[in-house]
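Researcher: Let's try something more involved. This one mixes different molecule types, so please make sure each is placed in the same coordinate frame as the others.
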Amino acid sequence: MNLIGSYALLLALVTAAYAFAGGIAGIRSRNPLLLSSARRAALALFPLVSLAVAALLYAFLRDDFSLAYVAEHSSRDLPVMYKLAALWSGQEGSLLFWTWLLTAYLFAVLWVNRGRHPELMPYVGTIVAGVSVFFLLLNNFAAQPFNLLAQPMASGGLQILRPADGRGLNPLLQYPEMVGHPPLLYLGYTGFTIPFAFALGALLARYPGEKWIHLTRRWVMLAWAFLTAGILGGAHWAYAVLGWGGYWAWDPVENASLMPWLTGTAFLHSVMMQEKRGMLRVWNVWLIFASFLLSVFGTFLTRSGVVSSVHAFAQSSIGPWFVAFIVLVLGVCTWAFVKNRDYLRSDHRLDSLLSRESSFLFNNLILLAAAFAVLWGTLFPVISEAVQGTKISVGPPFFNRVNVPIGLFLLFLTGVGPLLAWRRTSWSSLKKNFGWPVLGALVTGVGAWVAGFRAFYSLICLMLAAFVTLTIAGEFYRGARVIRGRTQTSFLSALGTLALRNTRRYGGYIVHFGIVLIFIGLSGAAFNQDRQADLPPGSKMQIGPYTLVAQTLTSEPGPNYTAEQATIEVFRNGRSMLMLYPARRFYTASQVTETMVAIYSTLRHDLYVVYAGRNPENDQPVIHAYLNPLVKWIWLGGVVVLLGTILAMLPGAAPASAKPAGTATAEAAAALTEAGTPR
Amino acid sequence: MMPAWALAILWLTVAVSPSATDRARRLGERLKCMCGCNQILTECNHVGCTVSARMLQELNERVARNESDDLTLQSFVQEYGPEVTIVPKTQGFDLTAWVMPGVALAAGTALVVWLLTRWRRGPTVAEAGAVQERHLAQARRETED
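Model: All components are placed in one shared frame. Result:
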């Protein structure tokens, strides 16, 4: 099977190179046969790379330890679920997985748009095929997943080795979320290739109007949703597995995922300016270029070892490949922009400073400032080393101090932006829309202060959360009231009709509400408590309202590990509530010990208990307990964000009194007349 | 016997200054465990990590001796190298770490304000052409496919 995998990858590289070169030649010569064959070659990439992926998975399932990658990342006793997840646990496999997702996206975009947009699609197929060439070069020459374990023989040949067992999967990765988090993240990263290809293709083809924006909207949202789910999944994984009590450490690899998310979020907003007003064409093209480049840059950071990171399981010397690719892509983008920049000439006319357009500009400014701050902090150790000769570290205190105010301002804009009208907002409507939310924010602030919520940023965060929630609720209420008045249905039914009629708008509001919930969760971090104590069976410790009583310390066998497990009974107000089982697992294949955290989660706080091992001085078990307020709101917020994104991706249902077809064109003609009229 | 005023000063000092534990924790949050885990010193949770245990013990001893924050951090830098601190200094080249995000935000704000002011003046002849092109493109889009 390894031969099949190797040849499939080699054939995929040749096919991708043909799709790329043939696509360019076809576009230049306008030869339909050449374009058609290049398109088919691009479609063939997915089955070819799928064959390679299947071959590697087969090797994992068959415990074929003659393959270096399998021997390095699996073992006979590894559960099947993790044998499958081991595909993306190391450098070679994860790059193959990346290529597979990329070719799947390419296949999907070409299939969905078959027979449509004949001027644009050849560019899209060619550009994605070009990106695939780069990743297939890595798969074939820099990070080969089908290398055999071999040693030189005295006769001069190579002897293939077949170890009896592998070294096992990194224990940190043996957690259910490891099965979901990396694929989601990779789907997000690779997903930005599609809008990037549309943007670059439209620029190169001088494709008319805003059509590329319409064609890519759902692809951008899909990539953004996957990236969001991947980031939150990673945060939850870090929280539940790493055992330090937190979910976000501003690690360079975490930052690498946040940067394209921030620019992607900026794009999702600013693109509306282009659709509604024909503004920001240059800006939008560069935002999507930046999102794609930052996705590749994130991969470079993860694997090159250029900055220190806790994600050290996939580092190697492939950094120069990525640097060359990023420089090349940046060069192509710049050349295309310089060559065709007149095509991006925008219709910039602002009726009022108090308008949706202004708020979107500020929203983009803040998102970009946050992305820059994260990039700057992440790269500062490298910059410092280049300038001063000494490599310093930049950690959470820096990122928190810089990004928390930026994040809060962004939360404020989340509430303000949607309530401002396009073109112009009158002061009276401003007062009408913002009166209750401002009052609600003040009442929340006073209430939180009285309740002892006195950390400055957390208090501001709660006030803004109330403000934004009330603005969103107001929007839903006003819209549903109108529909109820017209249709005489119940308010709940009117709410459903409203959301389904303009899915994009109300899906967006739900996403905003999810972000509010996440911010509420983050605000709890200021009140985290923790205690650590020796806790032999029968003894107890107190944290917040909970009393932890150690019951037993037992040894439990697992499928590929032995666990030392503490049984802790949790009491509140003298009443037994539940049992928690924090543990340490010793993985036999890798000879590594990891902690397994026990979490009791409520909306108010998480009781997070870690069995930290035995005290070397007295051999007593050590329990480290944390009380982390509001953490659950973060995960709930993530679910709401994803639900809102799904709603926003659905096509909106036409209202009962929908205008007949052709009206939009008539409106466009009317707008044309209007544009020539002085205001 | 200690005079009453000295007792009062001592009481005030003890009451106002953070406890040694709090101070050690605060300083520990500005240091990195040097075992290679890249975690904050006070958050290193590697089972049996001898490096963080040694560093924490040293930190507690220095705080117990009432060494100043600067001296304590400097001692760690001398022992473990500049990478041990995770908060850039506010002097020398490190100051740029703090300044640049603010500069970028200020420059961005100035740019946005400039753009808004410029756009409020109304479209140029070229921009009016772009308006026409946009609406034509919209009409084209809606009659295609």
